[in-house]
Amino acid sequence: MSYKLRVVRTVGKLISAAGLTRRELLRLLAWLHEDLPERADECRHVRAADADGCFAYYVDLEADDGRYIIVCRFVVHDDHAGDGVLVVQSFTFQRRPRTGST
Amino acid sequence: MTLTHTLPARTARARSQYLGELVDVLRCARLEGGHPEEQGPLRRLAEEAAQMACRLARDARALWNAAQERLHAAAKDDPPLREYVRDVMAGALALAEDALKAAPDSVGPPVSLRLEADRLRQELAATELPWDASDALRVDPQVLAQAQADSERGDVIDMEEWLRELQASGG
Question: Is the pTM of this model over 0.90?
Fold first, then answer.
């Protein structure tokens, strides 16, 4: 199933104001746009039974001077005609320095 | 149910075993030089290996996502759980890289598998970091409730449009 991706406007503002460089922001949006919809189907069958309808991700996104650890929650609406819709409802992140190990 | 007993975990084990065998066959054929009449079957085998490696990569990523949901729900790190998923991901990545190397020259490594390998590499790095349950990454319930209300009102941004605008803005 293919999905359209939406971001709650307040969350979008939060991302815009997060102090990311243009390159980092592009990389983040590309990740959200390309990776999140692709994962929706593959992850749904392993979800915890008591999950509240949102997925949470914890990814390690390469940044200009380190890495970003991101927690992103979203809901999936299947009943849209044609495509499903993913709505990103929260986004938190933490910048960490690059380590030598990876 | 522990993660190791879920269907994706069992599927990953089966795919991993089968892919290992496929890669062995391809590697041996490569070392032996290959007869002209074997090129067709080898090409099909390489395609099958690439497809299997992509599926295994997705199994591994699904397991990592499931593990993240569990860590997030428990709000604390679980090193054995991370270690288990890390092993699955590392195994899937090693097999994906082997499948890329073993592909006959006439076929060339498939782009989709390269992409999956890149994603696995990135997420494998994430599994090495202790789960951070600090407040910095916790979602404020009030903020989430507001976002849910906004979402219901349709106050949302189309990601594709946003990305296009940002790309067009140059800089």
Answer: no
